[in-house]
Fold each of these.
Amino acid sequence: MAPLRKPPQVLMIRKDQPVAAAPEPEATASPQPPVAASAAPSPVRTPARNDDDLFDLGGMEGLTMADLLGPDSSQQRQSRRSSSAKQAGSADQAVGAPARSVDDFDFDEEAFLAALDEHEPHGTTGEVVRGTVIGLESDGVYVDIGGKAPGFMPKKECGLGVITNLKERFPKGLEVEVLVTREQNADGMVTISARALALRQSWEKVRALEKEGKVVQVKVNGFNRGGVTCDLEGLRGFIPRSQLQEGENHEALVGKTIGAAFLEVNPETRKLVLSEKKAATAALFQNLEVGQLVEGQVVSIKPYGLFVDLGGVSGLLHQSAITGGQLRELREVFGQGDRLKALITELDPGRGRIALNTALLEGQPGELLIDKDKVMDEATDRANRARSVLRQQEQQAG
C-alpha cells in the first residue's frame, strides 16, 4: 500500500499584505483517503496576474520624469550654500556684528606702490639705459642700471672691435650708456651691450648720410672676386667691382682711402653697398644748386625730353621746359650734339637727377623758336631775371 502524500499548497503574495508562512498540518488532522499508486496528483493552476497586481501603479499617476529622478545635484549644492550663507548672516546679525567696507581696513598706498616698484621688471629688450660700472670679471662687466640686480655686459659686447684690457676701458665708477639685449632672469639680472648700441647708432648715422647724398671716405681693408670691403662707422661695407674706377685691378686698392657714395643701406639685412663711381657724380652735385646756369651738350633725345651732359652728370630738359611757345617737335629747337645753356630748377642727389629749363631764359614765350642764338648769347644776363622768377615760384609754393 502506497504511503500517504500531502497535497501541494499555493502561496499567494500581494504587495499590500505581509507574507505569511504556510501553516503546518495539525497532528490531529484526519487521515487522507488512500490514493492508488497509479493515480497522479491533480495539477494546481496559478491565476493570471497583470502589472496592477504586482505593482501599485495607481500611486504613480500625475508624476513627471523630474519627480522620479529627483532634484539636480548642482542645484542642491547651490541651495545648501545659500542656506549656509543665510545662516551665517543671521548669526552675525544675532551678535550685532557691523558690516565692514574697504575703508575700514588698514591700507598704506605708498607702501603698496613701493612694493609694485620693487617687483616691476627693470630694463626691457631694446631699451637704452645709463648706468655705472661697479665690478669687472674676466668674462664681462657689471653695471648698476637701477634694478634690484646689476646688468651684466659680456666681454664681446663691450664695444666695436677687440678690447684687450677691460679694466682700463671700464674703470669702476665710469658712467656708460648701453642697450638692453635680454630681459632680467630669475635673479633680476639683465644682459646689456655697448656694442649693440654702437651698431644701432652707426646705422642711424649712415642712413642720414645716404639721405643727404653725402660722399664718404672709406679705407679698403679686403677684397674678393666680386669687389672690395671697407669699414664705415664700425660697419662692414662692400663696393662691387663694377662700381670701382679701377675694377680690373681692385686688389691693389687694399689699404687705400677712396671716396664712395651709397647704393644700399639696409640695417635689417645688414647690407651696406657703396659705389666709387657714384661718388664722382655726387661730388659734382655738391657744386650745383637750384637757379644755377649750366652749359652742356645734348647726348640723347627721348619722346619726353633731352638728356644733357653737364660734365660727368646728366640733366633732363623736359619737353615742357624747352620753350613757352608751341613746340611741334623736339628737334625744332635743339638737336643731337648741340650745346646749350639752361637753368637748374631741381636737384635730387639721392637719385642723381637734375631738372633743366631753357624756357625761363626767353624774353617772350616762343623766342627760342624764332631766335635761339640770341637767347643763348644773352643767357647769363637773362639768368639773373629768371632766378627772381624761380624765387617767387618757390615762395608761392611754400
Amino acid sequence: MSDQEVILVAENARFIVSGYAFSKREDGFISILNLRHPDCGMVVNENSEIIETNMDPIEQQIVLGLCRKNLQFMED
C-alpha cells in the first residue's frame, strides 16, 4: 500500500485510535488498518467478532479492545 493510499484511508476513517484507522464498509463490516504497518489489517462485524485478519494474536487482542471501547463512534 502506497503512502498516498494510507493517507486516503486515514482521511476517510470514522476515527483513529492508537494508530489504527477504523472505517465502516458498505457491507456493514468494520475495516481496521494499522497506519504504522499498513500490511496489517482486520475486518470485524458489528459485534467485534473477527471476520478476517493477518495480525498476530497479541495485536488482534489489542485491536479488539480498542474496537469494543470505541464502537459507539461507528454509528451513523
Amino acid sequence: MSENENEQQIQVGKRLREARQAKGYTLDDLQQLTKIQKRYLIAIEDEKFDELPGDFYVRAFIKQYADTVGLDGNELLKEFNEQLPKAKTEEYSDHISQAVETRANRRKTVSQGVSKVRQYMPTIIIACVIVIVLAAIWVTAIVRGHQDASTKIDNSSVSVSGESRKKSSSSAKKHSTKSTKKNTAIKLTEASRNNNSVTYNAASLKKDTSLQIKTSGRAWNSVTVDGTSALSRTMDAKSTANVAIKRTANTVVITVGNAPATTLKIGNKKINFTNNGRYNNTRTVTIHFGNSSSSSTSTSSSSSRVTNNGQSATQRTTTNQTTQRTTTTPTRPNNNTTSVNQSRTQGQTQTNQTQSR
C-alpha cells in the first residue's frame, strides 16, 4: 500500500472524527444515535477496519456514521471506494443502505411521536384535571344526596314519633275525659218500689246538673227540689223540659202524669223508673242525694205523708157519704121520744106547783 493510500485512509477516519466533534457528539452519544457499538466506532475513526465484523459492515457503519454527523454517506463511500473493503455486490450495498435509511426513518418517526406527545402533554394534563374535578363534584353530589336522604328519614321518624306522641297524648286525654265522665256520672241505686212510686239513692252531686223530661204524648209533670217547686205544667207530645239541679240538692221528687209516654234523664243518665215497662203506673219518682239515713227518714216521711193523704181522703169520702145519707133520709116521728118529752113536761109542772105552795 502506498503512502497516498494510507493518507486517504487516515483522512476517512479523521474526517468522521472532526465531523463528530463539530456536532458536539461524544462516542457515547454517537453510540446511542447509531446503535453501533462504541468499539466499532473507535475502530472506524482509527481506520482499523479489520476489527469490524466484516467488509460489509465497514461500508455500512461508515455510511451510517457519516449520515449521523452531517456528512453525505454515499458521497463519502464513492470518494473512498478504492480504499474501503469491497462488499459482495452493488445491489447488496444498496439494500443495506436502504435498510440503514429505514432504520433512521423509524428513529425519526419515533422522535416525532415523542415530540408530538410532548406538544399535546399540557392539553392531556388539563383534560385529566377537568375529569378529576368533575369526578369530585359527582362524588360530592352523591354524598350530599345520601346525607339529605338520611336527614329526611330522621325528620320523618321525628315527625312520626311526634305524631305518635300527639296521638298517645290525645288518646290519653280522651281516656282521661272518658274516665272523668265515668267518675262524674250519677249512679242511682233503687231503694224501694211499689206500683205507684219508686225511690232512688245516689251520692252527693259534685257539680250542678240538669234533669231532662221528654214526652212522646200529652202528660202533666212536676218537679220539686228540696220542697221547692221547679216545674209544674202539662207538656205536649214531643216536647222537652230541663230543670237545673244544684250540687247542694238533697231530694228531688218527680211526679209523672203519663209514665209510658215520659222519659227522664238526670246528668245524661236515663232513669228507668218503669223498669222497662213493668211499672207503667208509677207516678212518683224520688231521688235522695247524700247521707242514706236522711234519705231513709225522708222516705218514711214521704210515705207517711202519702198514708196521711190517703187516710184524709178516705175520711173525706166517708164524711161525704154520711152527709149524702143524712140528706137523702126522710125524717120520721119517734113515739118513744114524744112520750119521754111529755113525761118530762108533766114532772116539771108538778115541781113548779109544789114550789108555789
